[in-house]
Design goal:
The protein is α+β, with helices and mostly antiparallel strands and 376 residues long. It has ten helices and 14 strands. Strand 1 and strand 2 form a beta hairpin. The protein binds 3'-phosphate-adenosine-5'-phosphate sulfate and magnesium ion (MG).
């Protein structure tokens, strides 16, 4: 049974994520072809692009239009600090153009476009309106406008992630993966053949996945290309986790960058469990999508000690995996806690997502055995 309670929220969220993917594809193409100054470093030295701010403004605007600005709370990754600096005026102009070009297409996605183009200050307001810190009570939207920014600027995988937390639990998750091949085994085929994303035919690329809590179903839709109209549910098909439970046949995913997860620790765990295949290193929450779609069985993420995982990097992906039949916990086997603000507070060491109970149990045991000898 679909969760009837969130029907309107899901319907709007899926359409808005499709719009955001459309925006990102355009910006990524420009970025790669011009190698331009659309990328900035934030004060913490992480990267942010025209797409991050533009998606956040677009999603914030569309959600406010659908539900009323005064009724919604949005927790999201970006603020306007860097964008408001005088040296960012060129990038701000690009954001204004990207947002307005995207909003003008809203009818194609079954949503209403604004009567006239948004002004710069309306756009900055829309971005800074996403300043909620979430928490245990009420409903909060959680947005990562471009997850895997590094993948995005490198012309590789990235994701747009929108979720909703209701009284501390993730109840709805939508994940747009514009470069994720829709055909079965898309990621594995790409990594085995060492294909660049740009070498896969554009008709095969791009999907939006979504689910609601308790539905027991996760869905995938192809992105709509060129001038096509979005139709609900737009040839959505069910996705399901893999049934492989033999570690020798299982594939595990992890972040590309070893600064985001300790590769030598996970290699040790993999060895203890008896995983034989080489890890599938993919940018962004596409890793959760790969588990939900049954293309990989395990996702391990062990950040260095002191780093606190943010809710927007996980909310949508975790629910997709769970409703597709998988399990996601911390390394102590406990559920992730989305109720305590912007961080996954109380997370025990790292995150383990699995297609099933058997693999999960083995991994938790191996982490327990390996931890003492690690430097994490
Ligand atoms: N030190 C450290 N440890 C763990 N995680 C970190 C760390 N620093 C950043 N982040 C967050 O990681 C997000 C990107 O994760 P990925 O899985 O895509 O990593 S990777 O690019 O494949 O290496 C990335 O999300 P985006 O900023 O949206 O790209 C960050 O929120
Ligand atoms: Mg992120």
């Amino acid at each position: 049974m679909e969760n009837q309670k969130y029907t309107k929220e899901l319907n709007v969220a899926v359409r808005v994520v499709h719009m955001a993917c459309f925006l990102c594809e355009k910006v990524q193409k420009q970025l790669i072809s011009t190698n331009s100054d659309q990328v900035k470093s934030k004060d913490d030295d992480s990267l942010v692009t025209v797409a991050d701010w533009s998606v956040q403004a677009t999603v914030s605007w569309m959600l406010s239009e659908a539900f009323g600005a005064e009724n919604i709370s949005i927790v999201a990754e970006e603020d306007v600090q860097t964008l408001s600096k005088s040296e960012s005026s060129a990038i701000l102009a690009m954001v204004v153009t990207a947002v307005n070009e995207c909003l003008a297409e809203a009818p194609r996605f079954g949503l209403q476009r604004p009567d006239k183009a948004l002004t710069t200050s309306q756009i900055l307001n829309a971005i800074s309106q996403c300043n909620s810190t979430g928490g245990p009570l009420g409903q909060h939207w959680v947005l990562d406008p471009v997850d895997g920014t590094l993948g995005f600027v490198r012309g590789d995988q990235y994701a747009v992630a929108l979720a909703m937390i209701d009284n501390g639990e993730v109840v709805l998750g939508v994940l747009g993966c514009p470069n994720y091949p829709v055909k079965d085994d898309g990621l594995n085929r790409k990594s085995q053949q060492n294909l660049r994303v740009s070498e896969i035919s554009s008709a095969e690329v791009g999907s939006v996945m979504y689910t609601t809590k308790g539905s027991g179903k996760s869905w995938m839709q192809p992105l709509i290309h060129r001038d096509m109209m979005f139709e609900w549910p737009n040839s959505a098909k069910l996705i399901r986790v893999s049934s492989v439970d033999d570690p020798a046949l299982a594939t595990f995913c992890e972040p590309v960058e070893k600064t985001n997860s300790d590769h030598s620790f996970t290699a040790g765990v993999a060895n203890t469990v008896g995983l034989r295949k080489k890890p599938l290193r993919v940018y962004s929450m596409v890793k959760y999508a790969a588990i939900a779609r049954g293309e990989a069985e395990i996702y391990m993420r062990f950040a260095r000690s002191g780093y606190k995982e943010k809710i927007w990097d996980h909310a949508a992906g975790v629910l997709l995996v769970q409703e597709a039949g998988g399990m996601v916990t911390d390394a102590g086997g406990r559920p992730l806690d989305f109720s305590r603000g912007i961080y996954l507070e109380g997370l025990d060491r790292g995150i383990i997502a699995c297609s099933g109970f058997k693999l999960h149990e083995k991994l938790i045991g191996a982490v327990y055995a390996s931890w003492e000898s690690s430097n994490l």
